[in-house]
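JOB MANIFEST
job_type = single_chain_structure
chain_count = 1
residues = 145
[input]
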Amino acid sequence: MELREISDLIAINKIILNPFVQDDICDDFSAGVSLSEIPRHVQFMGVYDDNMLCGLYMLVPQNCATVEVHTCLLPLLRGVKAIQAGQLIIQYMFEQYKKIISWIPVDNKKAELYSRLLGFKIEGISRESYLKNGKLQDMKLVGIT
């Protein structure tokens, strides 16, 4: 397994629009929305297993010390492989940053478990900040240093 930076919009959209990924990453207004360009400040790191793109991480710098990460892994990278991919991206991010954060909707138990297995800790709550299925829900801020 390896990480490679990707900028191919077709490949990125293929991952983020995958039905297995969509429900985990989208609020009510972002479902089915594809990227038409890559924002300058965002970096996409593809996860390759046996030279096949099986997921990606979106990295969004918050400042010179902190980066926010968003995870999009296809079913091929679930379980032990997801942990391996997570360890790779954490190692990569800590080469450039001192802290990694992510926001997790309270109903996304898989994402919270994944973050905890990788060593993230809950650092805060943003109340009623995520609209999913017509219901406002809290988001948990998780971080690792």
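[summary]
The longest helix spans residues 80-94.
Residues 101 and 143 are 4 Å apart (CA to CA).
exit_status = 0
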